[in-house]
Amino acid sequence: MSDKVESLATLESKYQEFRAKIAALPTDAYDEVWLGEWNLAHLLAHMSGWFGAMTTGLKRVANGERPTPEGVDYSDEDAWNAKFAAPAVAGRAALTSFDDAYSSYRSAAQALPEDKFGTDSQTGKLRIGGRLLDGPGIHHFDEHRPQIDEWLSTRHRG
Length: 158
Hints:
Four Helix Bundle (Hemerythrin (Met), subunit A)
C-alpha cells in the first residue's frame, strides 16, 4: 500500500470511528454544553474550521505553493479554535457541515500527488501531504475521541 493510500485510509477510518459515536444523537444533544463553554456543534465547527484551512493548504500545495499564505500563522491555536467554533450551526446541521468540510478536506488530499506523502529520507519528517492530514485530521480525531467518550458516558438521556 502506498503512503498516500495508507494516510487516506487512516484518515477515513478515524473519521468513521469518530462520526459513528455521534451520528445517532438526537438534535438536542448538539446544544448540550459539556466541553468548557462548547457544545457538540462548537466542537464540530472547530474541527470543520481546521478542515477548511487545511483544504486550502492542500490546494495551495497542489499548485506548487506553500500551504499557508504569507502572513497567516496558525501557531495561536486557541485563537483559531475560537474563530472556527464561533459560527457553529445548531442541531444536526452541525454534523452536515462537519461532513461537508471533511469531504472537501479528504478530496483535496486525494488530489495531491503521491510524492507529497510518506517520510522524507533526509529529514525523517512526514512530507507535507502527510503533515496536513496528520495533525488537523488523524490526530485531531484522536484528541477529541476521549472527550466525546466521556461526555457520552455521562450525558443525561431523557
